[in-house]
């Protein structure tokens, strides 16, 4: 666990005999100190550790939010449980697609049964899903055993809400329409001690017609560059060798700051941090990926040779309906420029299939882009209607059987091009970060190349967190088996 030392000092100094401060982060430090006292008393009464479990759905930003939630719960004195049968259970939700909502509601139903057999159990639901009022009402009416509901804009107040949930029996609901500030100085429990995500922006201004994110994450807000750099420096001092800079659209970073700072400028400064060996970023938008950014990636070997460049569709007609602000040829030209400037780069993408009004001719255009760009991988999704988005109201929704047929066509094209690009690396020796013991065969370590591909090599847990020189011996489509050299 990595706890901001300054915040930890505030927790130690908190005077619980006085009212909670009004300023942040002092207020949350006070409530975290109070939560510690509550947990300590209950541990003494029950003569056992109190446990927690955080279940995360969705993107890297949700994963980063969960690290904060875990950090706060651990700092309060809870011990992580191996299952959802825990004293404090948190669902950090996603709402990009409808099936994400349904998965959460299904898990909530099972959690309700667990709670009947565990006196004092508390259940919290947070994240993007609960920024939609209809979902909050559904929880309020049909899942009345839930104790705490809070959204994306007020995550930093979790210590305060934690105390409310522990001290009350009713449902606590705190959903904000917008954020009032950025507060990052909170405990964080990283999933990996050797790599970490760092938020650089929150929210999105693009309003793609299919996307709920601007409505649940709010408008773009950038962190000050010096705050980001200090956080990265603290992470490196704590043993981190790889950092991923996170934002819904990292290209927009800094446009809202009093003193503008572009993403390319920020990335250049992050590269100067001694001890930091690899830098990733997620996610850029094709409409404003700058020549400066391409140059910075090209000229700095610390930056991973991987750019995730969401396409969504190769049809100009569909791109316009999606409100993506670029054309098919503009996208291809950008991808070609990236490959010319950074020959060893891996370009991956997102593709939505079955968008309202989409036809086989539109799918033909998408497949044409797949073949001309030669993606190293693509995350292909069947369009899911999200209430509250313009696309959900479009009259020409594509039937499910048509979506499935279109999806199969695109997936086949993606697999053909991706396999071809991967096979070209066979026999090369590349640097890979050892991340974990292979989940299927404990004789192997799973490592990640700069281009984001995985390679499995013989080894043990002592290698985890180290940069390895690996020969890529055998291509298995989207991953390799290799040998440490």
Describe the secondary structure blueprint for this structure:
Elements: H1 5-13, H2 26-46, E1 51-56, H3 60-76, E2 79-80, E3 88-93, H4 98-116, E4 122-127, H5 133-142, E5 148-150, H6 158-167, E6 172-174, E7 195-199, E8 201-202, H7 213-217, E9 221-222, H8 225-237, E10 242-246, H9 263-271, E11 278-282, H10 291-299, E12 306-308, H11 316-322, H12 328-341, E13 346-353, H13 360-373, E14 377-382, H14 400-423, E15 429-437, E16 444-449, E17 454-458, E18 467-475, E19 479-484
Helix pairs in contact: 1-2, 2-6, 9-10, 12-13, 13-14
Q: Please, how many domains?
A: 4
The assigned structural class equals alpha/beta
Specify the overall morphology. Answer: globular
Main sheet summary: 6 strands, parallel
Which radius of gyration do the C-alpha atoms yield? 23 Å
Relative strand content: 15-25%
CATH architecture of the largest domain: 3-Layer(aba) Sandwich
Distance between the termini: 32 Å
CATH fold annotation of the largest domain = Rossmann fold
Q: Tell me, what is the CATH class of the largest domain?
A: Alpha Beta
The total strand number stands at 19
Q: How much helicity do the residues have?
A: 25-40%
Word description of this protein:
The protein is an alpha/beta fold and 485 residues long. It has four domains: 5-174, Rossmann fold (3-Layer(aba) Sandwich), CATH 3.40.50; 192-304, Transcription Regulator spoIIAA (2-Layer Sandwich); 316-424, Transcription Regulator spoIIAA; 429-484, Nucleic acid-binding proteins (OB fold (Dihydrolipoamide Acetyltransferase, E2P)), CATH 2.40.50. Helix content is 37%, strand content 20%. It has 14 helices and 19 strands. The chain has a six-stranded parallel β-sheet with strand order 2-1-3-4-5-6, with helices on both faces. Strands 15-16-17-19-18 form a five-stranded mixed β-barrel. A three-stranded parallel β-sheet has the order 7-10-11, with helices on both faces. α2 runs parallel beside α6 (158-167) and α12 packs parallel to α13 (360-373). The longest helix is centred in the C-terminal third of the chain and has 24 residues, at 400-423. The protein starts with a helix and ends with a strand.
């Amino acid at each position: 666990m990595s706890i901001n030392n300054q915040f930890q000092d505030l927790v130690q100094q908190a005077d619980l005999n006085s009212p909670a401060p009004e300023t942040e982060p002092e207020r949350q430090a006070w409530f975290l100190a109070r939560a510690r006292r509550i947990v300590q008393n209950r541990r003494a009464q029950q003569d056992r550790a109190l446990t927690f479990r955080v279940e995360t759905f969705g993107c890297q930003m949700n994963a980063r939010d969960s690290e904060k939630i875990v950090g706060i719960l651990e700092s309060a004195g809870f011990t992580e449980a191996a299952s959802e049968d825990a004293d404090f259970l948190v669902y950090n939700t996603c709402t990009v697609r409808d099936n994400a909502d349904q998965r959460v509601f299904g898990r909530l139903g099972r959690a309700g049964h667990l709670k009947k057999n565990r006196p004092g159990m508390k259940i919290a639901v947070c994240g993007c899903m609960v920024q939609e009022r209809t979902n909050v009402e559904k929880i309020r009416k049909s899942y009345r055993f839930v104790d705490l509901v809070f959204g994306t804009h007020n995550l930093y107040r979790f210590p305060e809400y934690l105390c409310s949930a522990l001290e009350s029996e009713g449902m606590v609901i705190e959903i904000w329409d917008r954020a009032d500030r950025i507060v990052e100085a909170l405990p964080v429990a990283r999933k990996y001690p050797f790599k970490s995500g760092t938020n650089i922006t929150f929210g999105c201004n693009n309003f793609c017609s299919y996307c709920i994110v601007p409505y649940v994450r709010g408008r773009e807000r950038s962190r000050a560059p010096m705050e980001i750099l200090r956080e990265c420096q603290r992470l490196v001092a704590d043993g981190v060798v790889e950092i991923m800079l996170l934002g819904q659209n990292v290209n927009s970073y800094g446009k809202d700051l009093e003193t503008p700072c572009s993403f390319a400028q920020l990335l250049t400064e992050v590269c100067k941090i001694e001890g930091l060996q690899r830098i990733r970023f997620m996610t850029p938008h094709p409409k404003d990926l700058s020549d400066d950014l391409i140059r910075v990636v090209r000229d700095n070997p610390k930056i991973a040779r991987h750019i995730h460049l969401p396409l969504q569709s190769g049809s100009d007609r569909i791109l316009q309906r999606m409100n993506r602000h670029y054309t098919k040829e503009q996208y291809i030209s950008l991808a070609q420029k990236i490959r010319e400037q950074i020959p060893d780069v891996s370009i991956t993408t997102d593709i939505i299939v079955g968008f309202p009004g989409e036809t086989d001719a539109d799918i033909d255009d998408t497949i044409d882009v797949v073949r001309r760009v030669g993606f190293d991988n693509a995350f292909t999704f069947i369009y899911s209607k999200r209430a509250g988005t313009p696309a959900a109201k479009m009259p020409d929704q594509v039937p499910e059987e048509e979506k499935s047929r279109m999806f199969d066509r695109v997936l086949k094209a993606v697999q053909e091009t991706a396999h071809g690009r991967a096979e070209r690396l066979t026999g090369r020796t590349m640097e890979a970060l050892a991340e974990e013991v292979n989940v299927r065969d404990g004789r192997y370590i799973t490592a990640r190349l700069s281009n984001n591909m995985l390679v499995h090599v013989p080894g043990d847990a002592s290698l985890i967190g180290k940069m390895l020189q690996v020969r890529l011996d055998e291509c298995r489509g989207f991953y390799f088996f290799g040998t440490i050299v």
